[in-house]
Design goal:
single chain; about 220 residues; alpha+beta; Jelly Rolls; 8 helices
Length: about 220
């Protein structure tokens, strides 16, 4: 994780949310590489994050620590908005960079009064929270209504980069609420059907159209 100064493009991004960069204290840019964690569920949330570039995977862990009961992807918007609105600043989710990620970090303690007193920004927060609610509802619906193959194919489509799927299958199994063996069998069948191809780097998508047809998206 690299800490950097704001660029002109970052200042423009803040303005989209109604935030004046010069009115904020301690703001900086964070750059993360794929698979690098941003925050862990239960950790103290010290900053609010505005995504500028890349995608983050957001997950909620079950109490037994074994399953990820919600897993979705965000490529824009705000991380930490729910924590900003609660007195408990413990992170409600785990966030991991799924691609090279660039975001603006806004320390909450130093800027809380300005953030909450900014009507344009609070409108953005409300919109962002509504979108997250819809995302999580869609994930729960998919888990209940779609087949294992549909859920796994949708997961592959969401997490692939440049036609390559590189996730660890044990983690995939937890994210889609399936056993590792079942995930392995389905991926094997997709390879046999010419949709995927196993490589040293992961699984290459050979037929994106058919993968979409088999998915829940």
């Amino acid at each position: 994780m690299k800490k950097e100064e704001l660029l002109t493009e970052d200042r423009r991004e803040l303005l989209k949310y109604g935030l004046e960069p010069d009115e904020l204290s301690g703001i900086h840019v964070l750059s993360l590489e794929p698979k690098e964690p941003l925050l862990g569920q239960g950790e103290t949330m010290e900053c609010l994050y505005i995504l500028c570039r890349g995608t983050a995977r957001v997950c909620t862990n079950a109490r037994n620590g074994k399953n990820l009961i919600i897993c979705y992807y965000v490529s824009h918007g705000i991380l930490g908005d729910a924590e900003l609105m609660r007195s408990d600043r413990s992170a409600s989710t785990t966030a991991i960079a799924d691609s090279p990620l660039r975001m603006i970090a806004i320390p909450i303690a130093q800027n809380e009064a300005y953030l909450k007193g900014n009507l344009a920004f609070m409108t953005s927060v409300a919109e962002n929270l509504a979108e997250k609610l819809l995302n999580s509802s869609s994930v729960h619906a998919a888990s209940a209504l779609y087949t294992s193959e549909e859920r796994l194919c949708a997961y592959i489509l969401m997490s692939q980069h440049n036609g390559l799927f590189t996730d660890v299958l044990n983690d995939v199994a937890q994210s889609v609420a399936m056993s590792y063996r079942h995930v392995f069998r389905i991926i094997g069948a997709l390879c046999a059907d010419g949709i995927l191809e196993k490589t040293e780097s992961g699984y290459k998508i050979l037929d994106l159209g058919r993968l979409h047809e088999k998915s829940a998206v």
